[in-house]
């Protein structure tokens, strides 16, 4: 924190601070981007579970390509879409590592669909965080498999026409059909109540790995204010009013022992 | 040492296990099916991980992950599958990760066929994937040599942090020969990998990547690679010469063609033709210097490949016009007989 | 003394407005001060209302907020 000049009056105790697993680097995300919140929830889970020294994160290609700069844990940057295969290689090579991948909707559900489905199907004991913001942010706002019908993006400027480009891909529903995954859930971070639920889901997804339960994925329906061309508060309302109609929240699969 | 009658594919697999391979990721493709099967049977018994991936793309990315974790790791495939792996190979090279990739070449382009070919020389030695990088490329011509070069591939890959490729073909993969298997590697001789992602305990975090938005920084990353390649070029060139001292025609051939060319040299000598052979064993780094040296004295240098002429370009680069550089090739998986090649040799010495 | 207080890292704040929207008591608003990136940073406009609930910190996408709360022994003295 650069607020060294602020004197905290006597009698106050700190009740909320930056997680230790987050590095000092200032986030390079756009104002209001949900990557920042989700990234913090992961760091909180790492702190709470005391696994900073065992964790290896996998950075995708996309706005979160710089993920490795924001954490105090080992990281591997993966080719676009391949994070679930890279995670498989890491975890099989060294099962003591706590491996998590962090991927956007292009990375996980377009180019990486095969690697995602098969890692889930094999029940790889990894934690996957899937940030579904219904657009390709990094490359300038192109249509994603999860773009909503009628939503305008630079590659569907008239709005997504389902007759030409199909429907929003529900990868969590697809994966929940399989026997391999242990936990598939869909969350959001568009208000504090959902932030808290997402936090619990992410913690569970990491706990599952520690308990050897198998493939655990948290899909977070997120907002990209920049490409939605909305202010951050308006983008949060988009989530509530539009995105969640296509991507309902809740647990899609929970494998009990 | 144990001496066994082994198929090329199996010898390669066994040698990899003896080299300490911990993770093997694969996808089935002919003509390296036996390599996959051998690993599936043997590797788990000997403390390793076998995983058949959903594609060659997935397999090379699993190799990337395991290599990042600091273990010896390998994949094998054949031409079309190696094409799929090019992105992953570029990432391995750019991230300075050691790994071994085995290509049992087959007829191409496209689906081609499953007969032996040498059409992937360009792909293996001139890039294949994007960016300025090289792989260490080793080309065995016999089953025992394949086993030996697999051990060497792991050693060099770890030593230089450069991925290594075994470039062989369907014939070598299928043929059976007696092999003195190499001694299992002494694991204490495997170099430490302080850069690996083993969990940031008592040290700052390690990051495995091949990326920097700042051109000057990416240039520096590239210069490190280039420096490494210069060292490899200086220290790791390998080749074999057969009867070159008094040769008046030099054959240059590698792999299965190198083996056949040895027979051609013997047959030529029996007929009084002073033929010799230079058989590159390392295709990258390529033995430019010995070929240059020989081209100063030998007037005809005949390159023989199972392709339309790929290594031929490197031979001509080495010769630089000092000698005639004819070419004899075969395509589609057709393998020439020694007699056919001998006729070609005779054409060039008839003057 | 107010039950809570927040410290906002001026250089991390991107003026996204989410904290002030989430705050149930209207404590936060734009300060009118611009940081080195050109963002109008958030600040406590009504610090006296803060209860240290930390909702602002939980929704902040830049993890720019630290939250303090009066210790329970002192809380009894608070208005």
Care to give the gist of this entry?
The complex is a heterotrimer of chains A (257), B (351) and C (79). Chain B is of the alpha/beta class and 351 residues long.
How does the SSE layout of this entry go?
The complex is a heterotrimer of chains A (257), B (351) and C (79).
Chain A: E1 12-16, H1 34-49, E2 55-59, E3 74-77, H2 83-93, E4 98-104, H3 105-109, H4 113-122, E5 127-132, H5 162-165, H6 171-176, E6 183-188, H7 192-210, E7 216-221, H8 225-228, H9 232-246, E8 250-254
Parallel strand pairs in A: 2-3, 2-4, 4-5, 5-7, 6-7
Antiparallel strand pairs in A: 6-8
Helix pairs in contact in A: 1-7
Chain B: E1 3-7, H1 8-18, E2 23-26, H2 33-42, E3 49-52, H3 56-68, E4 73-77, H4 79-84, H5 86-95, E5 100-105, H6 121-125, E6 136-138, H7 143-160, E7 164-169, H8 170-174, E8 176-180, E9 207-208, H9 215-235, E10 239-242, E11 249-252, H10 255-270, E12 275-280, E13 282-284, H11 288-295, E14 300-305, H12 311-319, E15 327-329, H13 338-349
Parallel strand pairs in B: 2-3, 2-4, 4-5, 5-7, 6-7, 11-12, 11-14, 14-15
Antiparallel strand pairs in B: 1-8, 6-13, 10-12
Chain C: E1 4-8, H1 18-22, E2 28-34, E3 40-44, H2 55-59, E4 65-70, H3 72-75
Antiparallel strand pairs in C: 1-4, 2-3
Structure description:
The complex is a heterotrimer of chains A (257), B (351) and C (79). Chain A has 257 residues and is an alpha/beta fold. Chain A has nine helices and eight strands. Chain A has a single domain, classed as 3-Layer(aba) Sandwich (Rossmann fold), CATH 3.40.50. Chain A is globular. With 351 residues, chain B is of the alpha/beta class. Chain B is 41% helix and 19% strand. Chain B has 13 helices and 15 strands. A seven-stranded mixed beta sheet of chain B has the order 3-2-4-5-7-6-13, with helices on both faces. A five-stranded mixed beta sheet of chain B has the order 10-12-11-14-15, sandwiched between helices. A two-stranded antiparallel sheet of chain B has the order 1-8. In chain B, helix 7 links the parallel strand 6 and strand 7. The mean pLDDT of chain B is 97. With 79 residues, chain C is α+β, with helices and mostly antiparallel strands. Chain C has a single domain, classed as Alpha-Beta Plaits (2-Layer Sandwich). In chain C, 18% of the residues lie in helices and 29% in strands. Chain C has three helices and four strands. In chain C, the strands form two sheets. In chain C, strands 1-4 form a two-stranded antiparallel ribbon. Classes of the chains: A alpha/beta (257), B alpha/beta (351), C alpha+beta (79). Chains A and B meet through strand 2, strand 3, helix 2 and helix 4 of A and helix 3, helix 5 and strand 9 of B.
